[in-house]
Amino acid sequence: MPRVAVLSGGVGGARFLRGLVAVVDPGNVYVIANVADDAEILGLHVSPDLDSILYTLAGLADEERGWGRADETWNALDTVARAGGETWFLLGDRDIGLHLVRTQALRAGDPLSVVTARLAVRFGLRCALLPSTDDRLRTAIVTSPGERLAFQEWFVGRRHADEVAAVHYDGAESARALPAALEALETADLVVIAPSNPFLSIHPILAVPELRAALERRRVPCVAVSPLVGGAAVKGPAAAMFASLAGGTTAAHVARAYVGVADALVVDEADAPDAHAVAATGIQPIVAPTLMRDAEAAAALARVTLEAAVAC
Length: 312
Ligand code: GDP
Ligand code: CA
Description:
Number of strands: 14
Structural class: alpha/beta
Strand order of the largest sheet: 5-2-1-9-10-13-14
Low-confidence stretches: none
Number of helices: 13
Helix content: 40-55%
Strand content: 15-25%
Bound molecules: guanosine-5'-diphosphate, calcium ion
Radius of gyration: 18 Å
Shape: globular
Order of helices and strands: EHEEEHHHHEEEHEHEHHEEEHHEHEH
């Protein structure tokens, strides 16, 4: 069984991981997750991408909404509103329970990785869930008029409506990679970049110098999966960001986001006409259905990704 290290954001990454753990031994899967979306909300440390992965793999996610837990209720937030607190960032009752435990542990001095590992065991995950770093790393968005916003202020507060002129990963330069994440990259038989938003989920992982260096000196294949289908995002601001930051939304634009770190890119059948342009970037195109409609489609995409590695 191959050991697989996966770079992942939230929803797209989580959907892919659900397929992956169905086709390889989850004990051989090491998820290196983005933490640059993390935020303090109402005094609680929220880790949206870690939690999307945790809830999805535990079978507790609200699949339709795309974040948070199924069967959620909002009583705590109603009280927050009544008490005059901030309610722009939605936190459900079930979700809050997790944030309470995490926040308490962090305040007591536990690193995020230790808290996360404990939560992963408690929620029945069999793969390793590794924050990319225990250090503070935060995405900031510069909008086209030049306004600088904290990531969640732009993403949730403004519903990612403002055009993005630049993205900064504050703290990345001095952040140390999580040792277990480095080890996962160094001992993996295969590295996968999940179909996550490159600018918001994958680049903040690669912005940690030790992680980028580890990926650049890999001797095993790295296969990325495109988050764009037919030049459009399945969900979220990825296509709009490709348009404003990279000048287009074709599969070749996605490939260029991963030059130097990926050997192959799985692109959707709808993007087959762009395959030659992907190849021109030096990254091998693999054309396959990439829409993860259900668990079976996600497992099929995971299989294609593993097979692509053999061909690299
Ligand atoms: P976030 O951190 O929750 O925003 O999630 P990610 O960064 O991990 O994933 C967001 C990306 O997942 C979006 O750009 C979507 O287009 C992509 N995505 C979601 N579902 C699918 C799918 O079924 N297939 C593919 N190829 N991409 C998907
Ligand atoms: Ca995210």
